[in-house]
Amino acid sequence: MKREEILQRLRFHVPEKKRKRVIVHTDIKNEADDPFTIVQHLLTPSEEVEGIIAGHNEWMAGIMVPKMAEQYGISQEELMAKMSDMTESGAGTEGNPMVTPRGKSMEKNYREGVKILKLAQIDDVPLVRGSAYELASDRPEELPESEGADFIIQQAMKKDDRPLYVALLGCLTDLAIAYLKEPQIADKVIAVWIGGGDYPNGGGEFNLMQDVIAARVLFDSPMEIWQIPMNVYKTMEFSLAELVDKIAPCGEIGAYLCQQMLDFNEKMGNTPNGFPHGETWSIGDNPTVSVLLQGSERVCWHMEHAPYINDDYSYTMREDSKMIRVYDSVDTRLTLSDLFSKLRLCYGGR
């Protein structure tokens, strides 16, 4: 079914001049929140979703798996087997998304993207593969292959006066590759990124840790950046009771969104990590919808010189860099109510 056919169920129309061109970049199978963001972008008629890019989340394989194995006191191989056993019978799971072998995370994310589009009954939004690995350097001759980067370039260079918003729910790898391959996209793209630690200090944050070189490339580029740091995106929180009450009844896609989060919450909640929290969840990628949806008169952000990102992910503030938009808050009520209503209107439910 075409996306427009689904959107007609909303029973309202967005004026053509108010529509934004958007690409959504996601590590959708990393954990349980990305699918909600993908679906909300797809159900937002003010967005012309040009496509979805499946990115990697390789930091988990390179850093987190050894740490978790050490916590358990077992080998990495034993950990992988243990986590696979824990999830093999769970609805909506495909092995544990937090412990993917090195070089395999992007493909797992791609497969989950295929599933989400099918459950959402949308067959005309392109889904493309990003890079399987983070950047080793910013030298053009060392860039990894990325269909997603080429897709960004293709869309950015179209004859269209509107900017291309790239909503980044995870790593910055593919946008950095696109910029390094074609620097002209810098004045045509607005990067809307969920990532980075709190200002002014920064620090370890999951999406930033996926590819610090890519972050440095984009922060040093002339590209416009809207950054939604961790202290802001973590406020996009709902309870599991709301999940079961408001999302589960909304057709096959609602049932899947609910069950995969409940499964993930149960299984990861019994590991040595402090995450997840138990009865609530921050769907921390949905602020990419928030900032594109809310009225332009609302100024809940400030301008900041782009910091230098150190090897420990902390920020070094500087006064000679470009200015970026850093969000101080997002509207949780607007975003969650919008998500619940769009799912119900498009897929049924109470």
From TrEMBL:
One Pfam family matching this protein: IU_nuc_hydro
GO BP annotations listed: purine nucleoside catabolic process
Domain of life where this protein originates: Bacteria
Molecular-function GO term, any one: purine nucleosidase activity
Database matches in InterPro entries: Inosine/uridine_hydrolase_dom (IPR001910), IUNH (IPR023186), Ribo_hydro-like (IPR036452)
One GO CC annotation: cytosol
Annotated signal sequence range: none
Protein name, UniProt field: Nucleoside hydrolase
Taxonomic placement: Bacteria, Bacillati, Bacillota, Clostridia, Lachnospirales
